[in-house]
Write a structure and sequence with these properties.
The complex is a heterodimer of chains A (about 170) and B (about 725). By secondary structure, chain A is of the alpha+beta class. Chain A contains three helices and eleven strands, in the order H-E-E-E-E-E-H-E-E-E-E-E-E-H. Classes of the chains: A alpha+beta (about 170), B alpha+beta (about 725).
């Protein structure tokens, strides 16, 4: 009994260091964000286009009376564009008090990662600066790109937030 | 839980108490102060002191303590109210506000200011004591000049010292019985009782605790103070045998006699009058308003009401963060949309077969609408929130300008959206300052013109249709037509003598326009009316001026009731629906191709009744796919933004509707040409156009196009 309890305790201690991530796919690539940032997942529906904005900003939509901008990471990451279908979902994230919808191809699962499973990300991509990456994680055959959604969405190039003094 | 969690509550409450205090101070009748108001001022100071003590705001506690002592003398009639005393109190109140602000910012209050105000207050207590001493002792009404405050040699006594002699005058034995008071509170109460006199004995338990007290205070006063801590039911005060002289009666008599003895060397009253222009600020308000009007319009607050109102207000109102209210408004908006969606679906069903459902939906519709109305009304606050700041300002300003001004407020209970209230304050400030500085003449000039010395400034608010009208009315000199015209000419504005009065008055809204001959530190720097006009316009309102020379000026602000709802015209371009604010729309028409003129290559003008308006093709500015591009196939909406008109080219007018305004910047950023967004009946989002910004956007784009054209031309030339 006691040994079992100790094992539980050890697991619990280890748990405090693991973080849970929400895994989503863009094409054949898999990305993950801190699950605590995700507020809800909904299907993609009518978006009102906003003129004179970068093309990865799809527009704004009505989320229970709140006007929420919708961004398409696929376009932002320069991936091949696809038609939105029934599988297309929007992850609604809460970033520094702002609510933003992120269009992704699909949400696959939620996984826990301990710090030793996360490898630092190499400087490798032009469209996704390593500033917005928490690292890479490999689960068996899969490689997950861990995205720092806070930094990404508040970054200047996302044009979601007014530059400091406009 | 951390005690700092309660700081904010204390700060807000204290700020409110200070506001109350100021209002009461300004309303005080110097000749015969209303004891209720004196008590209210005392209670405010006392409550702040209590809170400051609890949270360890030492300086604040000490200041309020001294203040409270003096107020106590005042409300017991031992100190005769004078104009300069009220002014000192107002200063003290400002000082308390500064201290609060300092604590709020996590810093210590300015010790110098603290020392200064304490000195002043103690001096006042001392002075009062100097006079009080002989009188209480029953001396003859000393005709000798009372010791001047400055000459008083005392080594700045402790406030407690000032209090002591008063406490010992005349004694009476009271038994104070505390019923069911917890031990902690009991200690506090006994501490409090010690201020009133000396405690002769105490005994009892939690259920019933008796304190025997020798005091010169009346049982009522003691009860009033103790009731800060306990409920009236928990308190019983009985008079024991009164062995001492009929002190209370004597004391009262002495007090009653006090005023006649009061006169200081005759120089003083005169001096008082000189240093403090007898400004009558805020008499019990609308009593001065014409009686019939007061009788016919219910929103006029009665003069005596405020004090009582406020006491009730404390227990019947709830402080809620704005965000929570906004959330409720959003949710109810969603509910209404869902309801209308159901309603549409119902239309496709056979009414006869689903009559119960039809009835149910109808009921839901009514409930949803009532709910929406009720929720929207949460945001509404009475105009009193705005008006209440003016008595002080008028009081101070009039004193500074050497004018006598009486402030009258009408329609304090008229309700207005909270967000509007906050943004109306500055423009109103400007107008009040203008009226005081330029409008109302100095007493001498007024007398010479056969008017009463005291000018009257009226602030009034009333509803009219979906609008609220806020008037700033003065009975001053009025605008001078000739001077305005001359000034306009020297400013290079196109004016003519045949202009109507209204047009002339509108001149003062021109930027940099000031008719003041001297630039004072109150106003007259020419930043003013144009800013006022712009601010009001940004709220979707407008300003009107009525003026008659020699009789006064009325400036009227017309505002929508709320910023949250807007009368809009929905228009379509391509597949996209936009909302135009209705007050920007002048007319719409179908242009004929012969009325369209090209200008500077890419730009086009539309001729409407001998007027050429720039054409603003919405599809081009916003890059809307699938929109009609030939003007003759489109509809033109003539719109006005910040004074400039243009012809907006759209595909179709969809209809007119009220929309709930939603901020885009909450989760996104400012979008050029768009002021906000709204949610349509089908749940989709529609953008609300900002005409002035749209015009700017169009100009920028057209400049860019021309630059590009020039660049390609140059390239062609080179190749």
């Amino acid at each position: 009994m006691t040994s079992l309890k100790q094992a539980d305790l050890a697991a619990a201690i280890a748990d405090t260091h693991t973080r849970e991530f929400l895994v989503f796919s863009l094409g054949s690539e898999e990305y993950a964000i801190d699950i605590l940032k995700a507020q809800e997942i909904r299907s993609y529906e009518n978006v009102t286009r906003i003129a004179n904005t970068p093309d990865f900003i799809k527009g704004v939509t009505n989320l229970r009376g709140v006007i929420v901008p919708i961004v398409d990471l696929r376009i932002k990451f320069h991936l091949e564009r696809i038609e939105y279908g029934g599988q297309t979902v929007v992850i609604v994230v809460n970033v520094e008090g702002r609510i933003v919808g992120v269009v992704v191809d699909g949400v696959s699962d939620v996984i826990s990662l301990s710090p030793d499973q996360i490898k630092p990300a190499p400087e490798f991509s032009l469209s996704l600066s390593s500033d917005y990456l928490c690292g890479l994680a490999s689960i068996g055959e899969r490689m997950l790109v861990l995205v720092d959604i806070d930094k990404l969405l508040t970054s200047e190039e996302m044009a979601l937030v007014e530059k400091t003094v406009a | 839980m951390d005690i700092t969690d309660f700081y904010d509550t204390f700060f807000e409450e204290a700020a409110e108490l200070l506001e109350d205090m100021e209002r009461h101070l300004l309303e005080l009748d110097i000749e015969s102060p209303d004891p209720e108001q004196l008590n209210a001022i005392f209670r405010a100071a006392h409550s702040i002191k209590g809170g400051a003590g609890t949270f360890g705001f030492d300086v604040l506690q000490r200041t309020t303590h001294i203040f409270e002592n003096i107020l106590d003398h005042l409300r017991r009639g031992e100190l005769k109210l004078r104009r300069d005393i009220v002014d000192t109190f107002l200063e003290t109140k400002d000082m308390l506000q500064d201290q609060l602000a300092a604590y709020r910012n996590g810093s210590e209050p300015d010790p110098e200011a603290f020392a200064r105000i304490c000195q002043t207050l103690q001096q006042m207590a001392l002075e009062e004591l100097g006079k009080q001493g002989p009188e209480v002792a029953g001396h003859a009404p000393a005709p000798v000049p009372a010791p001047s405050p400055v000459a008083e040699p005392a080594p700045s006594p402790e406030p407690e010292a000032a209090e002591a002699p008063v406490g010992e005058e005349g004694t009476e034995r009271l038994r104070v019985v505390l019923l069911g008071v917890a031990e902690k509170d009991r200690e506090l109460l006994i501490e409090e009782l010690k201020h009133f006199g000396s405690i002769l004995g105490q005994s009892g338990d939690v259920q019933r605790y008796e304190v025997e007290l020798a005091t010169g205070e009346s049982a009522d006063d003691i009860e009033a103070v103790l009731c800060f801590v306990v409920e009236p039911e928990q308190l019983e005060i009985q008079a024991l045998a009164a062995p001492a002289a009929p002190s209370k009666a004597a004391g009262a008599a002495a007090q009653a006699e006090a005023p006649p003895h009061e006169p200081m060397p005759t120089v003083l009253p005169a001096e008082e009058r000189k240093t403090v222009p007898a400004v009558v600020a805020a008499p019990p308000a609308p009593v001065a308003a014409p009686a019939p009007a007061a009788a016919s319009s219910p929103p006029v607050a009665s003069g005596k009401a405020p004090a009582n109102n406020n006491n009730n207000g404390e227990s019947t109102s709830l402080r809620v963060p704005v965000a929570k209210v906004d959330q409720i408004i959003n949710l109810v908006g969603e509910l209404v949309i869902t309801q209308s969606m159901l309603d549409q679906m119902l239309g496709r069903l056979d009414g006869a077969m689903h009559s119960e459902l039809v009835n149910g939906i109808a009921l839901l519709q009514r409930n949803a609408r009532d709910l929406q109305e009720a929720v929207m009304s949460i945001r509404m606050v009475p105009m009193d929130f705005v008006f209440s700041r003016f008595p002080r300002q008028v009081h101070d300003l009039a004193a500074k300008l050497g004018k006598e001004v009486e402030l009258v407020t009408v329609g304090k209970s008229t309700e207005l959206d909270k967000s509007l209230v906050e943004r109306i304050v500055d423009p109103l400030n400007h107008l009040v300052r203008n009226s005081l500085d330029h409008g109302i003449e100095s007493p001498e000039v007024r007398e010479a013109a056969g008017k009463p010395r005291t000018g009257r400034l009226t602030l009034s608010a009333q509803h009219q249709g979906g609008n609220i009208l806020i008037d700033v009315i003065d009975d001053g000199a009025g605008l001078n037509r000739d001077k305005l015209l001359a000034k306009a000419r020297s400013n290079g504005l196109a004016v003519s003598d045949s202009m109507s009065d209204d047009e002339v008055w509108q001149l003062i809204f021109a930027p940099g326009f000031s008719t003041a001959e001297v630039v004072s530190d109150v106003s007259g720097r020419g930043v003013g009316m144009d800013v006022v006009k712009r601010n009001i316009q940004s709220l979707g309102g407008h300003v009107q001026i009525l003026s008659r020379q020699g009789q006064g000026t009325t400036t009227r602000i017309v505002l929508p009731l709320t910023l949250a709802i807007l009368d809009g015209m929905s228009i379509r371009a391509g597949e996209e629906i936009f909302i135009l604010p209705l007050n920007a729309v002048i007319e719409s028409l179908q242009p004929r191709s012969e009325d369209i003129y090209a200008m500077a290559g890419t730009d086009q003008l539309l001729k409407v009744r001998d007027e050429y308006l720039p054409l603003l093709p919405l599809h081009q500015v916003f890059g809307i796919p699938g929109a009609r591009t030939r003007p003759s196939e489109c509809i033109v909406v003539i719109v006005q933004g910040e004074g400039t008109r243009c012809a907006l080219l759209v595909d179709e007018l969809v209809g007119q509707q009220q929309v709930v305004v939603k901020n885009l910047e909450t989760n996104y950023r400012k979008v050029p040409g768009v002021s906000a967004a709204t949610i349509l009946g089908d749940g989709s989002v529609s953008l609300i156009l900002d005409i002035a910004d749209l015009q700017r956007l169009n100009r920028r784009q057209s400049a860019a196009r021309q630059e590009r054209a020039a660049a390609t031309e140059q390239e062609l030339m080179l190749s």
